[in-house]
Amino acid sequence: MPKGGSLLKAFLLVTWVGIVATASQAPAAGAEDRPEGFLFSESFEDADLANRGWYDTTRFRIVGGAAAGKGCVEYEWTDANSKVAGSAGARRSLEPTDAVYIRFYLKLSKGWGWTGRNYHPHLTHFLTTENARFVGPAATHLTLYIEPVDGRLRLAAQDIQNQNMPHGLTQGPLKGGYNGMMYDSKEALFKDDQWHCVEGYFQLNTLDLAKDRANRDGIVRGWFDGKLVIEHTDVILRSTDFPRMKFNQFLMAPYFGPGLLPHPQKLWIDELVVGTKRIGPLPAHDADPAE
Question: Model-level pTM greater than 0.70?
């Protein structure tokens, strides 16, 4: 049996081991506050996004007037060449998943102008394991879009790179160099210069590998200020050419095509959450929690 100083040393050793064991079992700070299906969030309180997992740029303009907190990210178009200023596009890697959900708050500048065409601006995207880490979103095996077009909320998908795959394109034929299925809200929703909550959810369809065919059971849903405005439960997003396809990347890249910018304008994004299940608006903004 240890005596004197040896007894004290033994006591301290046992105490230290107990503290370490307890600490190793404790949840990480804030983990208990994360809802089920949470992957990551970004409140844009400062411009140090690179140290929070964002990559492919370090150019962010953080300004006040946020939907919540003290900051939001600002994107600006200053002239007719349509190149975005202030902040640049940025990416986040995801744990591969069959379903993705996004929520963010979006504000358009006063007098915001649309393109006069049924496309652009692009805004946010999801990409998959079937393309590389720095792939451009315009030509992939699957790109998802969550964006406002002509005042409506649009959820969309395209798969241009599948043109020569055995099962071909899943999102319609190529037209003018692109293809896509567009799932729009019935009404124009973006009508002012206030903050609005945008939510989108996509679930990959299942595959019947024995019969070498895709099942028409993919899901696309969208909400505006807490209200369900888009719902499709019979969607095909992938074919049996890609049986292991999963979503693994988020891309935030506001963009107007050349010559489409109607006049100088800005937009702001705040309180972004990405997950695998619907999380919903911030409590103070939840217009219809029953939806």
Answer: yes
